Fold each of these.
Amino acid sequence: MDVIDLRSDTLTQPTEEMRQAMANAEVGDDVYGEDPTVNKLQERAAEMLGKEAGLLMASGTMSNLVAALTYCHRGDEIVMGDQAHMFWNEAGGASALAGAQIRLIPNDDQGRIDPADLEAAIRPPGNVHASPTTLVCLENTHNRCSGGVLTPEDTAKIGQVAHAAGASVHLDGARIFNAAVALEVPVKELVKDVDDVSFCLSKALSCPVGSVLCGTRDFIDRANKWRKMVGGGMRQAGVLAAAGLVALDSMIDRLADDHANARRLAQGLANIDGLTVDPDSIHTNIVIFEVDPSLGPSAKLIGALGAEDVKVSSPSPTAIRMVTHRHISSDDVEETLSRTSKAVRALR
Ligand SMILES: *Cc1c(COP(=O)(O)O)cnc(C)c1O
């Protein structure tokens, strides 16, 4: 039996074309700004996203951290959704290293935050008792909200409230291209109302390493200093950037296949007694479903799936996450459904 690994789209391996491009990449010392392949990737990414400049980072976590460091002084406040990746999965970096206090407001099931909640949460500078809200963070697609997608309108409303109060908006767009493909809108439209955006090369786009942070020239110049401080000044990084250029050229349109597979997976899971998911709420490549308490905590089903050679992850004690990606075919989806039925039966 082949293992079907649905833990994450970060498992994707570089394509043959990427390996060739990496082997042949023209490189230089990027800390001196002299790596032509890195420069090309940064310019290309910025142009695609409609921003002035880009900066290659080691990871999405580093991009988000550097954004927080660039905007915030110690004691400032960052407002974000209560399901944000920056809050749950980045080791507390924005608090520990940027010295910012995190204020959480509710995310809805698609990963949106309510502009009215934001308006009520924002605290302007000038009050000696308050930690001023310098930054608002959005996430698109939303990891812990089943890959939910923010539309350009959702993002514009948040931008308006934040900017009116003098706060900046950082978009954690680790999977922003999944959102663009799902909505069939140019990615530029999705990020036009945020001050900066980071996206991951190393997820569904299949690169081995990397993320790009994009924003104004001034923001990127300041971010470059913070990137250096946290150890992200890389030298002949063109070897990595070469794969990124291949990804931006050839790996975006195929994301639609991952989305179709995720939708089909959710439809099948919804038909298995004891599992709950609304297939119509699945728009991209992340499927999160609830496990009925009669089957025990989700860890039990994860164990039973493991015995069937299906690997998954667990966002909570009652839920399971399956992520489709380039190495998951539509046949794998059908096979996953039949193994999941078997695993559920084994628990009854
Ligand atoms: C994966 C992810 C990150 C972090 O990216 P890494 O490259 O794994 O550090 C940030 N935000 C979201 C929404 C993610 O899914």
Note: Residues 12-250 form a domain with the Aspartate Aminotransferase; domain 2 fold (CATH 3.40.640.10).
Amino acid sequence: MRVVPEPAVGAQSDTGLEARLAAVRGSIADAAGAAGRTADELTLVVVTKYHPAALVRRLAGLGVTDVGENRHQEAQAKAAELADLPLTWHFIGQLQSKKARQARRYAHVVQSLDRASVVDAFAPTEAEPDPRVLDGFVQVNLTDDPGRGGVAPDAVEALAERILATGTLRLRGVMAVAPLDEEPRAAFARLRTISERLRTVEPTATDISAGMSGDHAEAIAEGATHLRIGTAITGKRPDAP
Ligand SMILES: *Cc1c(COP(=O)(O)O)cnc(C)c1O
């Protein structure tokens, strides 16, 4: 009998990870095909929050180019540890101004622009007159609960103007999470009309970041260009640190 070595405690098998990644890529290709689109129009952002840097490294070895994180300190540490990898880091969590100023040192894309104060934190300052230019998405709140992340749909244009005024954020489009109590496709259809409105402010801001593990097919059907997928690829997330 062949003895298969047990993986080290805490390590996840690479074959499991590889199989889940392949399954998600297959599902994305199917959904794209059903919508008359092709998978190469879509950017897969693998959400690696709470997982160790070693997992991100394995994903990069499997061809993943874009990763998403939602906590500043954790993202900063992982980006530093993995600085040798050609990864694009997407920040997808709530930000405060102070952390936003720090996040721009390692992040390439900030998907969670949802308040003027956060947007303004990316503008040049006296101390940092020439900061890095990042890609930015306006996060839209698709629920009726103003406590949720994102700006109200009717405030999207004003925030977009503010983003353009920084000169240091390239406005790429809109981002949203589907509400729990609504059919995701209906919510993503609303996001699509909001995206069309945004383009009247900035015609090149055509991207739509929508769709997670459970609803990426619906998002693709409604025009998503960026998918943020965590657990379907990484397996169960460790508890929040
Ligand atoms: C955690 C998270 C995701 C990924 O969710 P999964 O259900 O694990 O795919 C996507 N978007 C945001 C904003 C998140 O916080």
Note: Confidence is low (pLDDT under 50) at residues 5-10.
